Amino acid sequence: MVMIVGLPGATPGGALPRGSVPEVVDHGRSGLVVRDLADFPAALSLAADLDPAACRRHAERNFDLPVMAAGYERLFRAIVEGQRSVRALTGPRPSLRRLRERGVSA
């Protein structure tokens, strides 16, 4: 949640690829995802060079209130309509291959 709160303020950062990080951080645009904790200080230093406006755009496209509300509405409608497939409930997700291409180890 902290990562999402920082994005609209155009505050890129660094993170390890655990939990929701691969879903929240757009590696190289809204922050940097590092595989090893030892690389974290360098990632934070490099994050200072990321475009704050791109960080904010990422937040608006993915986590702005209307976007999130529409996602929850889609989820709740699917549940009410009896959808049981996880894919139907969550929508499209990046493939493991795509995440690896972006430098995220999953």
Describe this structure in words.
By secondary structure, the protein is mainly α. It contains seven helices and two strands; from the N terminus they run αβαβααααα. Helix content is 53%, strand content 6%. Helix 4 (52-63) packs parallel to helix 5 (65-80). Strand 1 (13-15), helix 2 and strand 2 (31-33) form a beta-alpha-beta unit. The radius of gyration is 15 Å and the shape is elongated. It starts with a helix and ends in a 5-residue tail after the last helix. It has a two-stranded parallel ribbon with strand order 1-2. The mean pLDDT is 75. It has helices at 2-6, 21-24, 40-47, 52-63, 65-80, 86-90, 96-101; strands spanning 13-15, 31-33.
**Using only CA atoms, what is the Rg?**
15 Å
Largest sheet: 2 strands, parallel
Structural class: mainly alpha
Which shape, going by the Cα principal axes? Answer: elongated
Q: Separation of termini?
A: 20 Å
Q: Average pLDDT, to the nearest integer?
A: 75
Question: With helices defined by DSSP (H or I, 4 residues minimum), what is the helix count?
Answer: 7
